[in-house]
């Protein structure tokens, strides 16, 4: 294993959102390491300073380093930011576990329930890595490309450790990016998971031509159900009226940048589930989330 210079944060996951968050932190003057499974893709990103597949037109900061060796990437930073699909969350935690030190701090920007168990992601993280280390979740109404382009954005950083949440929020902050803090980890996680289900539903409604009235009713009544589920799983109703609940719900239900909404649109226009999924060509978190939320409800 060849060590690389220490960085402030290692971002695990070089998709759109992982690259956008790595770009944000690096643009704020913080050395960042970005790890991804595809070594060829990382080499292209390192040499060309672009991620054409996910963030076209965005120039990546020179403060951003790239690493395809997971052990090297994890050892390079105290703070580990996981940005992987919910179905890969446990596997990723198990993969980094041998390289995590006692001083490591864990953050994730993944949204969803664990497929099969219905667990919230903080429950998965605590089950794999224990409860001794600081942990936080980043969530809210964000499209990766807009964040990478520096467009105005606000989201939530939640942790049972308020000082840790405040530290992460301060490092994300700049003139166009504002992070609010919360201690309600279950609440923000439920908001981030269930909004994807409602985005699919909103897409189906619009794809069927049911109009703006139906979409507004669906969003509003859907929010009521999100709050009920959030409270049942240990969250606070007030949290779900904020950025991590209502904010994320409005964004994903009304804008076609949302892959979950686009998936619903395709279904509403008559495509099969498999064809609709293929047309998106990215992970559609709301599919698994719908199954797990139904079981939890």
List the helices and strands and how they pair.
Blueprint: E1 7-12, H1 16-27, E2 32-35, H2 39-48, E3 64-67, H3 70-75, E4 77-82, H4 89-96, E5 105-108, H5 121-129, E6 135-139, H6 144-148, E7 153-158, H7 162-172, E8 177-182, H8 185-207, H9 211-232, H10 243-254, H11 259-268, H12 273-280, H13 285-296
Parallel strand pairs: 1-2, 1-4, 2-3, 4-5, 5-6, 7-8
Antiparallel strand pairs: 6-7
Please give a handful of descriptors for the protein shown:
8-stranded mixed sheet; alpha/beta; 50% helix; 2 domains; N-(1-d-carboxylethyl)-l-norvaline Dehydrogenase, domain 2; 297 residues; Rossmann fold; globular
Extract low-pLDDT stretches.
none
Number of helices: 13
* CATH hierarchy class name of the largest domain: Alpha Beta
Give the SSE order as H and E letters: EHEHEHEHEHEHEHEHHHHHH
Can you tell me the number of structural domains?
A: 2
Main sheet specs:
8 strands, mixed
Structural class: alpha/beta
Q: Count of DSSP E strands? A: 8
Q: Give the radius of gyration.
A: 18 Å
Strand content: 5-15%
Query: Helicity range of the residues?
Result: 40-55%
The assigned CATH architecture of the largest domain is 3-Layer(aba) Sandwich
User: What's the mean pLDDT score?
Assistant: 96
What is the terminal-to-terminal distance?
47 Å
- CATH domain topology of the largest domain: Rossmann fold
Give the strand line-up of the largest sheet: 3-2-1-4-5-6-7-8
